[in-house]
Design brief:
Length: about 130
């Protein structure tokens, strides 16, 4: 499942390499933020190898989850998922335009409220 909404920002390749080479020490679990189970795995030397094997199979299968419960599914490096500076700049420009439009709308609504709340100074119409 490669749905970006439910995918962890952690790299699956990095997680797999850490699990394969240093998995008995739980290093891959520290990498994905699962500190408590990483300590437990380190103390048991990867569950005497069984936990190490299980984690490696889960990572290869794409079923391994990070500390937030998100699937570590993307093989690419984490930097591929960062927003480029040009895109971030355009997002901030759009936010500034939106803020200006909301302020203008707020002023118009306040003006309309003042007009509706003001008493009719000429008396009832038709006199």
């Amino acid at each position: 499942m490669n749905d970006d909404l439910f995918a962890s920002p952690k790299s699956r390749l990095v997680t797999q390499m850490l699990a394969f080479f240093l998995g008995i020490f739980g290093v891959h679990r520290f990498y994905v933020g699962r500190i408590q189970s990483g300590i437990l795995q380190m103390l048991t030397l990867g569950g005497l190898g069984i936990w190490w094997l299980y984690d490696n199979i889960m990572i290869v299968a794409g079923s391994f989850r990070d500390a937030d419960g998100l699937l570590v599914s993307d093989w690419g490096p984490e930097t591929d998922r960062l927003i480029p500076a040009s895109t971030a700049g355009s997002i901030f420009d759009e936010l500034d335009q939106l803020r200006t439009e909301v302020n203008e709308l707020h002023e118009r609504v306040e003006f309309a409220e003042r007009l509706l709340a003001a008493p009719n100074r000429d008396g009832p119409s038709g006199e």
